[in-house]
Amino acid sequence: MTSTVAEYQTVAELNKLASVAVIGMGYVGLPTALGLHAGGVGVIGIDLSQNRLDSIRSGEVDLIESDHRRLEKAVHQEDFQLTTDSARMGEADAVLVCVPTGLDEYLMPDLGPLESACAELIAHARAGQTLILTSTSYVGTAERLLVKPLLAKGFKVGRDIFVASSPERIDPGNVTHTQAETPRVLGGVTPACTAMAQRVINVLTPAVHCVSSPETAEMTKLFENTFRAVNIALANEFAEISDGFAIDPIEVIDAAASKPYGFMAFHPGPGVGGHCIPCDPHYLLWQLRATQSNAPLVTQAMHAIAERPKQVVERVLNTLSRDGKGMAGARILVVGVTYKPGVQDVRSSSALDILDLLAAKGAKVGYYDPLVPNVRVTGGALDGIAEPDGGDWDVALIHTIQPGHSYEWLADCDTVVDATYRFDRALFAN
């Protein structure tokens, strides 16, 4: 007789969850570890970088305020341990893999860190453990990196060890949709795997949406961020169309969003960055190429997103031209370089591409971002302007506005190009 998830709930409840190892203590792993610890579970945080662990201990990490308060308490408690020793994962009742999954220079999946982490996990796995893959990847990753190696070692998945996929849904800097308030998708290899994994994920959030398999959970995450990518590309395109008609695109979006059904507001901007939208759809496209399938809408959306920084630079050039100026020698200040407000993260930020493109056209570039003292661009390291004077610049290009900081000095700048389309309403806000 086939057992159901409900029948395995009792099994999960009888297996007390005393400790969880979290592999990778980055922007996903650290908040996950803090959430588990706050839920009464002992945590073993594992990261290859001793510098990263030292930064965590000192509190010099990018977290929302509530997680900073959790960290201040956790680092002084015995049941919150940080280590570079991967063998420690063998001590835990459950292990969550939270390492980054990026792209190489050819937009191909770079699974090096994930493959290494899973190989270590297989090496130290023991009977009774629950292993959960939270890193975003292509369909079949959990099967390839966890299930097959475990079977090869003689484990019976779903009987003496449990495997599931529950892709992370952490939005760095977002205090509205916290980890505890955001439902998680979870797919286990067997009903027993789902039940055993759910007892872990329920520590992080009470809302768990169980699906039939790890593959379904993996595809769900790819669909989520591909949906966002396609709609952001559409919003950017409508912004260009609206400009051509001398219409405010934000007014159009706000008006469309008054419809209580069938519309979801996405806003145009200078480009996308971070760990998800520029990356995740390419995992899907890469896998489709292997099966000689195609997704023309997704392909075109990702191309449009990649081209967005060039469109922003072209907008700056057109603005200068209307004033009888050229790009060569123009003093241009990029305002904000993080990929989104409220974080210190510049990974894949379109601001870096914009700085490079402006410099390549002969502009004298600088940037202001109170959260980022310096960045690395094609020409090398570039230090931020600590206290800019609007009168020193021909153009101020608004890329990212950091909350809690004053931008009154922009009133002294002759020309402001707002690539966010939303800055003018809060010009003098603190």
From TrEMBL:
Record keywords, A-Z: NAD, Oxidoreductase
Domain of life: Bacteria
Gene3D superfamilies listed in its UniProt record: NAD(P)-binding Rossmann-like Domain
Signal peptide start and end residues: none
Keyword NAD: yes
Family: Belongs to the UDP-glucose/GDP-mannose dehydrogenase family.
Record-linked NCBIfam families: NDP-sugDHase
Name by which UniProt lists this protein: Nucleotide sugar dehydrogenase
Gene source species: Amycolatopsis saalfeldensis
